[in-house]
Amino acid sequence: MTEVDHFENVEQDPEQHSWWQRAAVYQVYPRSFRDGNSDGLGDLRGVIEGLPYLASLGVDAIWLSPFYPSPQKDAGYDVSDPRAVDPMFGTIEDFAELVQQAHERGLRVIVDIVPNHVSASHPWFLEALDSPPGSLQRRRFHFLDGRGANGELPPNNWESIFGGAAWTRVKEADGTWGQWYLHLFDSTQPDLNWDNDEVRADALNTLKFWLDLGVDGFRVDVALGLAKDMTYPDLIDPIGMSQSLRFDLDPASQEAMDRRAGLANSALFDRDEVHDIYREWRSLLNSYGSDKMAVVEAWVPPERASQYVSRDTLHQIFGFDFLVVPWDATVMRAVIERAIEAVATVGAPPTWALSNHDSPRVVTRLGDGADGLNGLARARALALVAHALPGSVYVYQGEELGLSDVQIPDSARQDPVWFRSAGEQKGRDGGRVPLPWFGTEPPYGFTDRFDATLWLPQPEGWAKSTVEAEDIDPFSTLNLYRASLALRHSHPGLSSGDVVFLDTGDPCVLAFQRGADVVVVANTSSEWITAPAIGLVLLASGPIETGQSGLRIGPDTTVWLQT
Ligand code: BGC
């Protein structure tokens, strides 16, 4: 049996029928997924142990956030060797075993690639520090002389996305202050110079390295940022530009659209020439077969999205609108229509993500009650909207358990965003806490080392949210996800066909038809409503009842109906 025989639905038309056109992809954040070697930190052996669980969830693929050697200044997104495994996460043999076991269970494996920057402890950066201005070693990065009489001012006014200036000055070999280097993120994450052929060739080597180990795809970090305006112009609104990547606005609002529009072909982001890089990558991926893929992280305006996913560039672009969409039927409809249209012209699938390691958990974001109840109901309802849409869905670990963000004491915070903003922004730690597997108190089966201090503290009160507890609760979020992901595959109405919106006349009701006979109704109000369609209930995220006037749908609830 060849490896590919482990997968269902593998067809040969690379553009329309590849697995990634309609996959459910589970994001594993390795340090917080599961500890397999009893040191208190999540690792690759923990991921291997968790594979049966992921298979039982019904996802098609896993995406692993970085597990590469790193000083961990940005939780692994500061990579010092992109072609190895950090010993804290295991070995390359563990990785190979993970791929093999995942494949045996029908799960594809996507790994993160971080091409925009490296760690300040990457050998290239150490060499650059030891080399003079203008040297080959420095030209792999963006080293510039400063402004001012003695070069004491940064080369321009660019701001780091994590706060503060995007430039840091170095001491030269003679001990005097010297040039500045660019870092769009933390000062420990120097940006690579993609105008440099060596940088391009090295990334291709990284892709090959993991492809040769059998990976099925890549998640491309900061994919919109690689190409820069090499004249390094001052920006009119440098803070606004760096904040544009952090969307906390209603995505349909004018302000959000203006911010995103400002990114298009700007000095720092989404430059037209970035696609030359992805064309090279696409050729390489194609040479490994038609079912290898890459998904790009690129917050770009809808009219720019298709360039990343056309036939000669990459395959998917993350749809981030559901990370920020308000619980409002009218806005949701607009956002869905826009997202589908944005990629339809190039035949790429839309993608939907309710949460990830950079955003608040969806239960917290949508919750407006102190007990989080509305948040949970709405998150479940939003999941059933997303899972019924065409394209791929990305599920961030713990989302399927309905977890909310954890209140992290300031003294325990780890995110560079917290440090670089001098505490003004709390950062992303609340959604990165180690997963609860079983038991009634920390560490909830995450590790069997009971005296371990976890990198972020788990809360009391997660006993009902463990995998073990939710597994046996028929109404749990885990079992809702299992049911929706299974139906998504098995029900013909959900696996094909356009989205046709139904006008219900009620601004609190989102309703659309998929395929010939499935109708999805989301009640975003806090009142019961009567379903605008008649049919057999396939799945409901919340309370429903049959009344004299037909099916009644409870507050903050989505229902899938077979009509
Ligand atoms: C990743 C973040 C990371 C940043 C810098 C983002 O896109 O998702 O977690 O901090 O890139 O690498």
In brief:
With 563 residues, this protein is an alpha/beta fold.
Could you describe the 3D structure shown?
With 563 residues, the protein is α/β, with parallel strands linked by helices. It has two domains: 383 residues, Alpha-Beta Barrel (TIM Barrel); 60 residues, Oligo-1,6-glucosidase, Domain 2 (Oligo-1,6-glucosidase, domain 2, Alpha-Beta Complex), CATH 3.90.400. It has an eight-stranded parallel sheet. A five-stranded antiparallel sheet has the order 12-13-14-19-16. Strand 1, helix 1 and strand 2 form a beta-alpha-beta unit. It starts with 23 loop residues before the first strand and ends with a strand. The N terminus is likely disordered. Beta-D-glucopyranose (BGC) binds next to loops.
Notable features of this structure?
563 residues; Oligo-1,6-glucosidase, domain 2; 8-stranded parallel sheet; 19 strands; 27% helix; globular; binds beta-D-glucopyranose
